[in-house]
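Morning. Coffee machine broken again, so started the prediction first thing and wrote up yesterday's gels while waiting. Chain of 260 residues, entered below exactly as on the submission form.
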Amino acid sequence: MRPPDSPEQADYLVVESTYGDRRHRDVDTLTALADVVNRTAARGGVVVIPSFAVGRAQTIMHCIHLLKKARRIPDMPVYLNSPMAADATRIFRHHLDEHRLSAEQCAAMSKEVTIVNTVEESKRLNTLTFPSIIVSASGMATGGRVLHHLKTYAPEARNTILFAGFQAAGTRGAALVGGSEAVKIHGAYVPVRAEVANLDTLSAHADREQLLAWLGALRAPKRVFVTHGEPVAADALRLAIEERHGWPVTVPEYLEARKL
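Came back before lunch.
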């Protein structure tokens, strides 16, 4: 997507804080993705990528296309198993003015991928015996078709479960990234022997420094409200805003009301 515009002046500002307590790692995303795919392919395994259907899946498809074009990864099959992601991919192709990809790039990323439509086709993906990449929703493994792929591929050490963004506390994604040896899916515990990795550089959320820089374009608002973050991250951003800009900041509690 294009970079965000500078904010308009506001009396009161609500800002998210997903990464309010950290900076994104200085890692080349394409190199990190290539490393995961190549070492999994060398083991003869399958890369399962739980992905958010809108935006993230298309970014991953574009990255895979770039890596294949540069011959940085094998020409292995790629499957997109998410009806919503398939719909969103078509929207990308029809609304080129809304993002930075050209018509040629949109066509190329779609050409590299087999769109999985039916339930039967989705089930057949659980019988793969050769190196492949499966991109499937949901991004935090809280539901959707990806759960069936996790049940199949997580128990095998040759495979990789690759997350592509922030994993909220309490989700299967967070448990897997945190090193859980088993996760509960459809009422039963599934052992996790596959490699688990997270390309957090693909997150759509700004980090602390990016948020503070964006805020810096404003004249002092009457108050800033910090939302949408784990408690530690939200409070860290509150402190950073107060220290850098000297503005009054509140992290509202659940159901808290303010008369402005």
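The chain has two domains: 12-23+205-250, 29-202. Going to sketch it on the whiteboard this afternoon.
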